[in-house]
Amino acid sequence: MNYASEIAKLKQGKLASVYLFLGTESYLTDSAKQTLIDAVLKPDEMDLNFGNYDMEEVLVGVALDDAESVPFFGDKRLVIIDRPTFLTAEKTKQKLEHDLVWLENYLKNPPEFTVLAFFAPYEKLDERKKITKLVKKVATTIDVKALSEKETRSFLKETIDNEGFQISPEAFELFIQLTDAKLSLAMGELPKLFLYAGDSQTITKQAVNDLVPKSLEQNIFALVEYVLKKRVSDALSLYQDLLLQKEDPIKINAILMTQFRLLVQVKILEKKGYQQGDIASALKVHPYRVKLAIQQARKFEEKVLKDAFHGLIETEYRLKTGKGDKEMQFELFVLQFSALK
Questions:
Q1: pLDDT digits (tens, 9 = 90+) for 62-84
Q2: Cβ(83)–Cβ(58) below 8 Å
Q3: Beta strand pairing call for 166-167 and 202-203
Q4: Backbone torsions φ then ψ of 203, nearest 5 degrees
Q5: Which residues touch 191 (CB under 8 Å, ≥6 apart)?
Q6: Strand partners, 50
Q7: Following DSSP, what letter does each residue of 69-130 receive, concatenated?
Q8: Distance between CA 134 and CA 161 in Å, rounded?
Q9: Is 16 exposed, middle or buried (0-12, 13-18, 19+ CB in 10 A)?
Q10: What is the C-alpha separation between 225 and 67, in angstroms, rounded?
Q11: pLDDT the model gives residue 195
Q12: What region holds the DNA polymerase III delta N-terminal domain (predicted)?
């Protein structure tokens, strides 16, 4: 089901007896859960008519017992079932014996006074299971799956517009890059940018750069660029900044190796005619990471990328065998690589 249209129905008070929220996008999930709560219950009804049960910790029978109870001092009861692993093929540490027959009987005749909602943070369910087929047949399914980069961009632009703010194309691109095109992360950063923009209602590139923190991986991305372009001073300066942030040289080198391996793989696969989506599927890497890797790899010859990757392998060996000062091994690699023709 379309997320926006179903959320609109909830806000209008058009309620179903059973819902299935399926997907891994935490921002959409949290937003949908709050909207559902607000649609079903008044604030003073929460204590008596709301239940939230984690199926990795509690038996489904406990939730069903609650769902079959008549509401106290209200018209509706809301029961949320989180992480219903019995709808998947996943194995859990806690081996709970859920009474699925009871659940089947409930779903065949759900009481009018209860809204039962399954929040399934999974990419897919086990469609072979009888209980899964029944849930999907009875429930109103709302997708809360991770958005594509295009969908994330559209969602963020619409959110910024709806709040009455503007953002320059350059600032928006930097914002997408610093949040890895992840909706939950980006939505968490927007309030700071809105507050900083103030009456001007304009989000600038400088504001994004100053306010949105850079992750270690993003600093590594910049470090890779400095290394490949043989900007020795910039590479060593950024490396020292990372050390001052208490990052471990072995960890830095490991992430660098991962990034250079990706660049080499992308270079080879693109040469073979693979498109961005095919590469992401083949390597099981987030499409946005692949997009950035393609852009970066195209600037350099395959031999240059392989030379850097092999140099980092040697650096890792020295780091792990204790040969020389640990913090100087990367600096040595940068100097040696920059000297290559």
A1: 999 999 999 998 899 999 999 99
A2: no
A3: parallel
A4: -95, 120
A5: none
A6: 78
A7: SPPSSSS-EEEEEE--GGGSS---SS-----HHHHHHHHHS--TTEEEEEEE-SS---TTSH
A8: 41
A9: middle
A10: 56
A11: 96
A12: 19-144
Residue 91 pLDDT class (50, 70, 90 cuts): confident
Q: Which two tokens stand for residue 148?
A: 């594509």
CA angle 249, 288, 235 (to 5 degrees): 30
Find the distance separating the first CA and the last CA of the chain, reported in whole Å.
56
| pTM score of the predicted model | 0.77
| List of domains in the chain | 3-143 (3.40.50.300), 149-211 (1.10.8.60), 216-338 (1.20.272.10)
Question: Mind listing the pLDDT tens digit for each residue in 202-221?
Answer: 999 999 999 999 888 889 98
Residue 85, C-beta contacts closer than 8 angstroms, at least 6 positions apart: 55, 56, 92
Strands 114-120 and 77-82: parallel
Per the DSSP assignment, residues forming a β-bridge with 22 are 120, 143
Extended strands (E) in 229-316: none
Distances (CA, A) of 190 to 144, 167, 211: 20, 11, 10
pLDDT tens column, 259-276: 999 999 999 999 999 999
CA distance 55 to 63: 9
Quick one: which of 233, 229, 222, 230 has its CA closest to 259? 222
The type of residue at 340 is: L
Tokens 């406990």 found at: 62
- Closest CA relative to residue 115, chosen from 80, 74, 63, 143: 80
Confidence (pLDDT) at 1: 53
The confidence score (pLDDT) of residue 324 equals 77
CB 108 within 8 A of CB 102: no
Distance CA 82, CA 68 (A): 18
H or E element in which residue 51 lies: strand 50-54
pLDDT at 141 over 90: yes
User: Which tokens is 314 given?
Assistant: 């040697």
Do 29 and 57 touch, CB atoms closer than 8 A? no
- Both structure tokens of 240: 């020292």
- For the record, the structure tokens of 79 come out as 């029961």
